[in-house]
Amino acid sequence: MSETSSIPLYSKNYFLACTIGGILACGPTHSFVTPLDLVKCRTQVQPELYKGVFDGWKTITKAEGLRGVFTGIGPTAIGYSLQGAGKYGFYEIFKYKYSKLVGEEAAHKHRTFLYLGASASAELIADVLLCPMEALKVRMQTSIPPFAKTTSEGFKKIMATEGINGFYKGLVPYTMVKFASFEKTVEILYKTFMTKPKHEYNKTQQLGVSFAGGYIAGIFCAVVSHPADVLVSKLNNLEKVAAGEHQTTTMEVIKKLGMRGLWTGLGPRIFMIGTLTGLQWLIYDTFKVTVGLPTTGSSDPTPTEKVKTD
Fold first, then answer.
1. In the chain, which ranges are continuous DSSP H helix?
2. What is the pLDDT of residue 245?
3. In a domain, 298, yes or no
4. How far is CA 215 from the centre of its chain?
5. Cα 222 to Cα 266: distance, rounded to the nearest angstrom
């Protein structure tokens, strides 16, 4: 592989490549862990429903067949593909734009704040794209029997009964933590555990660092965002009330759950999000390397680093 990319850094094609990489990183990985996500969501709503993940799969398969274990895979694939496009593509755009705005020296000196600002901006766009499919996914997964058998059936049901508001009952803000902690973790890994500058390592070694940095970032994401994730599951599982009746508020749900309830299912989610995030960064950076771009994150201040060939 050539050491120079045919895609100029920070060009339209560069940002397009990052967007495609984000789709490939998020859509398939989230779809793959649908069985784990299904048990996680159901236990967040009904903690005593299953004794554990394997008991959940056994119980679901017995009642609904093997297909039941993949309940919600349709909206998961669509929603997280859209989210991946938004958060990876726009993260790179905002990171570049904000760097130009404050200047190269200030951008490097205050890079953690830059990462947080860029990821927060990208998250707003990505989560707006994700939220409708996430709401449908949660509704399908936390209802027994499932709220709908297909994505289109579920979408039509929510639109007919609740309108567009039914698709926006909660956003889980963890992209800020995901990107900022990833960038910082990769920087620490190269400075602390590696003996040479990043660009002196070959692409396989750099991708190994991407996976490790992603897994660690995923653990932070899971912990920080877990209460909000539990809350989203509960809000999307509430029964629709008739006109004039009292609608349960977010604060009432929080009060009912209590501090302990907000952390229900943290263990499975740490495993799920850690694995997901590690795989996402691995896939994303593998795609970037394949098209001739450098891997994400660096301890070096210059953005023009090159990837060594094996």
1. 12-32, 34-45, 53-64, 73-102, 104-109, 111-142, 151-162, 175-192, 203-235, 250-261, 266-290
2. 59
3. no
4. 12
5. 8
Q: Could you tell me if residue 91 is inside a domain?
A: yes
Place of tokens 């600002």: 117
- Does residue 131 sit within a domain? yes
* Residues 111, 187: Cα–Cα separation, whole Å: 11
CA–CA dist 61, 55 (Å, integer): 10
Task: Tell me if 93 sits within 8 A of 15, measured CB to CB.
Answer: yes
Q: Are 174 and 220 in contact (CB under 8 A)?
A: no
Token couple for 223? 């912990």
Q: What is the mean pLDDT of residues 87-92?
A: 95
Q: How far apart are CA 220 and CA 54, in angstroms?
A: 25
Give the residue from 132, 25, 29 showing the smallest Cα distance to 88: 25
Alpha-carbon dihedral of residues 39, 74, 68, 47, nearest 10 degrees? 20
At 220, list the tokens.
Answer: 């932070």
* CATH number of the domain that residue 16 is part of: 1.50.40.10
Counting the structural domains of the chain, the total is: 1
Domain membership of residue 301 (yes or no) is: no
- Residue 104 belongs to what domain range? 12-290
- CA–CA dist 98, 77 (Å, integer): 31
Tokens of 274: 């850690």
Global pTM value: 0.81
pLDDT tens-place string over residues 217-272? 999 888 888 887 788 777 776 765 544 555 667 778 788 888 788 888 788 788 88
- Taking only the tens place, the pLDDT of each residue in 154-197 is 999 999 988 988 888 755 555 567 888 899 999 999 989 888 88
The encoded tokens of residue 218 equal: 């995923």
